[in-house]
């Protein structure tokens, strides 16, 4: 269970990850040393897993984004392990979820254009062993994208 002060720290860091410890401590109403210790404890416990910059996908040249619904032919360990291993290696795959329902996995993929997406399918997805089907929903417009948890 995360304490209330830690929630305040995490909420502030999600808003502005480049804030100084001094500013963070002021924002959450703590001393700088106590704030630093709490942040360090959150990092060491694995609650904070890293820091990164948020990049505008389209401005960075990745105009095409899609959600793939993937179903495997068989669910034995060999096919599942290979699928998971290969998918996690691909930079185009931003997220991969094992799910219930019609599809076994849902992937969010970003590429520069439809030609690149077609190459991703032809040269990668359709060559993976054990794939029953891949269905695509091309994202027309991103309404909300967030990585911040709702503290």
TrEMBL record:
<dbReference type="InterPro" id="IPR011008">
    <property type="entry name" value="Dimeric_a/b-barrel"/>
</dbReference>
<dbReference type="InterPro" id="IPR036388">
    <property type="entry name" value="WH-like_DNA-bd_sf"/>
</dbReference>
<dbReference type="InterPro" id="IPR019887">
    <property type="entry name" value="Tscrpt_reg_AsnC/Lrp_C"/>
</dbReference>
<dbReference type="InterPro" id="IPR019888">
    <property type="entry name" value="Tscrpt_reg_AsnC-like"/>
</dbReference>
<keyword id="KW-0805">Transcription regulation</keyword>
<dbReference type="InterPro" id="IPR000485">
    <property type="entry name" value="AsnC-type_HTH_dom"/>
</dbReference>
<dbReference type="GO" id="GO:0006355">
    <property type="term" value="P:regulation of DNA-templated transcription"/>
</dbReference>
<dbReference type="Pfam" id="PF13412">
    <property type="entry name" value="HTH_24"/>
</dbReference>
<dbReference type="Pfam" id="PF01037">
    <property type="entry name" value="AsnC_trans_reg"/>
</dbReference>
<dbReference type="InterPro" id="IPR036390">
    <property type="entry name" value="WH_DNA-bd_sf"/>
</dbReference>
<dbReference type="InterPro" id="IPR019885">
    <property type="entry name" value="Tscrpt_reg_HTH_AsnC-type_CS"/>
</dbReference>
<keyword id="KW-0804">Transcription</keyword>
<dbReference type="GO" id="GO:0043565">
    <property type="term" value="F:sequence-specific DNA binding"/>
</dbReference>
<keyword id="KW-0238">DNA-binding</keyword>
<dbReference type="GO" id="GO:0005829">
    <property type="term" value="C:cytosol"/>
</dbReference>
<dbReference type="InterPro" id="IPR011991">
    <property type="entry name" value="ArsR-like_HTH"/>
</dbReference>
<feature type="domain" description="HTH asnC-type">
    <location>
        <begin position="2"/>
        <end position="63"/>
    </location>
</feature>
<protein>
    <submittedName>
        <fullName>Lrp/AsnC family transcriptional regulator</fullName>
    </submittedName>
</protein>
<dbReference type="GO" id="GO:0043200">
    <property type="term" value="P:response to amino acid"/>
</dbReference>
